[in-house]
Amino acid sequence: MSRGLILGIESSCDETAAAVVERGARALSSVVASQITTHARYGGVVPELASREHLRAIVPVVRAALAEAQITLADLDAIAVTSGPGLAGALLVGITYAKALAFAQGLPLIAVNHLEGHIHAVLLQQRESATAEASSALDGTGRNSSDSPGNQSALALVVSGGHTHLYLARPTAGIWHYTLIGRTLDDAAGEAYDKVAKLLGLGYPGGPWIDALARFGDPLAVPFSFSQIKTKLHLAGKAPRTKAAKTAPIANLDPHFLFSFSGIKTAVLRYVELHTMREESAARVSQMLALPRLPQTKQEALALCPQATLDLIASFQHAVVGDLLKKTFAAAESLDASRILVTGGVAANRELRTRFTAEAARRHLEIAFPTLALSTDNAAMIAAAAWPRFQAGEFATQDLSANPSLALGR
Ligand code: KG4
Ligand code: ZN
Ligand 1 pocket test: which of 376, 382, 408 has the largest number of ligand atoms within 8 Å of its C-beta? Predict the structure, then answer.
């Protein structure tokens, strides 16, 4: 009998990843080769370098994922690959390799949307724990996996370096359907983190640095008002302006659930200029390159940034998390959703997890986040999202190509 083993391959941005997942409910391996050191000196992802690094990493990463799962190619039932959205050249490396493997092994190929993958990072873990609970319940009263939250509808906030999208995810007869509820009109939340970090001379990617430093600042020191990150109501229904905003249409969306993070980035820039923090930020760049790890204590944070900068960082994060929280819970209320999933790189943020968890408890809603490893890009989420498609026989053909602006849902 087939074990339902899917090899997932992900190469949409700056991580080369491969994983083996059993029946969409148990990760046997998840290997991620990060390109952070390659891109760090440029303060952002350089697409040409990303493709080159994927080419270098793809074969050893897939080999490592099979070895970690203690299987060979012959044990696989299918190969799943991210087909978009993402960087064209980067996506093509994963797609071409997946196609070649599928052809050589005579296996079905499954194309997965990267955003759907992020949602399944949480669903995979929920199914994983439901299966574990069911098998450990000796009296048979344990939750069986079909009751698992991993198989139930939820409002999903996908918040990463490339995306800030709200979806209603619903399973019908095992097939997942996604309705777009809201999204950013310009920058993604993670992009704002990365740009503000760069402006302040912090490391790349910026999210983890801001997360680590914000704990030592006063979140109310700089009053970034919501009007600075307000939704641009007048844009609703019109064509999006930026590349990041292309991945989904905005017509017919409720403007209350639209995000905009380019305003706060400009507000931070103005604040830095007004308070002559420019030189101090520029001086930090060389310090960052020599710094081995994120600051853990107030003393370490102060060795890196004066208190005023820590306050600015804390205030920026407080405003961004507050805006994500306000709109996500407003959408949950309007849709009468009882479950919320938060996923993507920014879901690793400590303040976000704490505040979303407290708000969900206050409103008696269920909330779930992926583990830190599954919050950022990985291939276990791709293999997990592919399982329902495998069961439905929804296979891609050998002419599958990269779709850099692939949309999810409508
Ligand atoms: O999901 P991901 O790995 O890639 C995309 O699909 O974009 O997300 C990367 C993004 C980056 O912008 C990074 O700064 C942000 O996630 N990020 C964080 C944290 N860890 C990663 N943002 C805030 N707090 C964090 N702890
Ligand atoms: Zn991602």
Answer: 376
